[in-house]
Write a structure and sequence with these properties.
9-stranded mixed beta sheet; 4 domains; N-utilizing Substance Protein B Homolog, Chain A; single chain; 17 helices; 4-stranded antiparallel beta sheet; alpha/beta; Alpha-Beta Plaits
Amino acid sequence: MEQTLTARQASVKALTFFDENNSINPDLLNGLEGQDRQQANEYVQGILRRKSYLDFLISKFSSVPVEEMNITFKNVLRVGIYDLLFMDGTPDYAAINEAVELAKKLSGSRGGDLMNAILRRVQRELSELPKPDFSDRTKLIATTFSHPEWLVKRWVSRFGEREAFQLMQYNNQRPSYYLRTNGLKTNDQNFKLRLTKAGVDFEESDWLPSYYKVQTINKVRQKGWFQKGFCQVQDIAAGFAPTILDPQPGEDIYDLCAAPGTKTIAMCDMMENKGSITAVDISGERIGNIAENVTNYGAEIVKIQRADVIEERFKLVDGVLLDAPCSGTGVMAKRADLRWRRQEADLESFAHQQDELLDAAANMVKRGGRLVYATCSIEPEENMERIEKFLETYNNFELENLEDYLPEEVLAYDGTAYQTLPHIHQCDGHFGVLLRRKI
């Protein structure tokens, strides 16, 4: 019989896969359930949030240089140190013993002895751990806050050190989540009762109706509420794009780059299942995710189309939502892997793709119709700079003011856009505008 993986073993496999392939493979955690899956997710995302700092500590306590370590051994060590520093529920002796046993399985008694020696040294100095002391200011900040140097330079230049520190500190915290009630299957009153009975602490948003902030989604997942379609995980800032498009019952709408379909479902709810929404994505696998979610959430007016938006032609419709592929610098608290996967040159590549997608989307909007452009980026090159370039070519579109749709504190550019910043608004970083085609 195949031995069941523990949370730590699965985490080490996932982290090693990331180091070797520069990508996350969620399938590596699929064999875990409940508390084990929660713990493994905490290890993987938490260690990726703190990777530079953890490796700095390893370099201080190990006689073997970090770059020369076996990758799997290094990830066991990262898990062990993360246990000692950040997992309050794990006793020190258990953190050390678990890591030592894992190291023994990987590389025999010598590996176990080395693991034990390093972790014991860390344990002895927990109250006075060494701090990064590099003379290079950028390297010092990047190591302290575990962000790549190119991003540190960019944010310090743009925000100043103090605010950049606040942003990076936010990214390193365990994130909270928003649940949006699905009005196609339940209502706010009933959903709040469910949360209360399940013992889920929540905070109702005053920015948008039907959004509830929670610290964990584990109980909600265990209750099966996602499969039953009662709610979906959708950050409050992600809800702004459907809100400003304001789809009405009976309209024809396109949702481009739609996977996994959360905005599609939100718009279906807004339209009371009347009209038509075509959810478009280029990926066959992601199309399958949309189909599953649409079924679970009772979004009956949704048609699903696999297509390359840039290459194929579409009919004219009342509204188009383009949630464009982007660097994701606004969601690095929840997607810690992105900070290590992205390079500064990617911004130019994304900008080129965003221009092409905007051009394609504009040609789907009928006269008097609306086009929403949105990203989960906080970089100007992917946001208002793309819109300014777009308007230089498309003088038959104009920006709409968003004051009637969204709270003042999230508005930017004289009310013609929204831009949330995680450390200021305590949610994901998103940008969006509403463009109307002139009649």
